[in-house]
Hints:
alpha+beta; 12 helices; 51% helix
Amino acid sequence: MKKLLNEHKKTAWLLFCLLLTLGALICLWRVYGLGHGLPAQLAAERWQGEGETRFAQVSCFVPVDEALSQNQIYAFRGKMMDELSKAALDADGTDGLWRDAWSAVGKLTVSSDRASGDASVIAVGGDFFSFHPLRLLGGSYLREDDLMHDRVLLDLELAWLLFGGTDLQGMEVKINDRRFIVAGVVEREDDSASLAAYTAGQGLYMSYDAYAELLGTENITAYEYILPEPVDGFARGVAEEYFPIGRGETLQNTGRYSLGRLLKLLPKMDERAMQGMGMIYPYWENAARVTENRCARLLLTALLLSVLPLISLIVWLWRLGAKGKEAFSERIFPRFRESVEEAIRRPARRRWEKKHGKSE
C-alpha cells in the first residue's frame, strides 16, 4: 500500500512538472511570436532575404531640441559609404548594400472639397516604407526618387473623413493653402502594441522636403538604416562613431528580442520608464518598447516555471547515475572482471594443455 502511494505521488509530481514545462514553452513561444510581430523591427531580415550576407538594422533618435537637418543625414551617408569601403564591401552598388530613412512628426490641417480636419503628420525621407511596410488599401507609397514632392499618403481614418472612401489615388487635398495629390491610402499596424502606442488619431504621410518647406525649418528626430554586418556590432558602430546623436539614443533593432538581449533588459525595466532627455519616440519605437517589456516579463515567467522541473530533472539524473553506479559495481563489473579473468586464463590453459600433451 505504501509503495502504491509513493508511485501515485511520483506520477502526480511528474504531471505537475510537465505542466510547468508546458507553461514555460508557451511563454517562450509567445516571446517568439511577439518578437516577429512588428514589421518595423524586421527590415534587415527582409532586406537580406535568401542572401548569405548578414545585415543589421539600426535606429537613431534625437531630442526635439536637437533635431537634425538633411545635410547632416547626407554627410552621414558619406561616412557609411567610407566604412563599407574600408570593410572591403562594394559600396558602389547602393541598391544592394544599404538603405536608410528619416522622419519628423507634427500636426497640420488638411482639407478636401468635402471636409477638413487636423491630422498628425509623419514627414518621411529616404526609403521609409521599406522599414515600415504599411498595408496599402489603394494607390502607392511615396518614394525618395519621386520627381515632385507634392504627394501624400492618407491613413484610413483621414481618408474616410476627407473623402468617405479608400480608392483615392489622384484626388487632391489642401494643406496650408498648398495643393497635394493623394498617392494612396494605408492601414496602420493592428497589433496590440502598435494600437496602444499610436494615439495621434487620423494622420497622413508626406515628403519630408515638402513638410520642411511648409514649416520653413528642419526637424528630423528619427533616422534608421540597414547595413551589412560582417562582424557583430559593425552596423551600430558606424552610428556610434559618426552619427550626430548628441543627447539622443542609438539602438540596434536586429536581434532586440533575442533571449540574451531580453535577459539584459530585465534589471533595467524600471530605469527605462524614466526618460528625461526631451525625447519623443515615434509610435513604432514605443510599440517596440512595449513589446520588449512584454517579452522580458514572459521570459522571466518561463524561467520561474522552469525552476522546479529543472531541479527535478537534475535530481532524477543524479539518482539514475547512482543506481547505474550501483548496478555497475554489483552486477556489471563482477561479470566484466570474470570475463577478463577468463580471457587471461584461457590462453594459459591452452599453453598448459599443449605442453601437457607434448609431455605425454
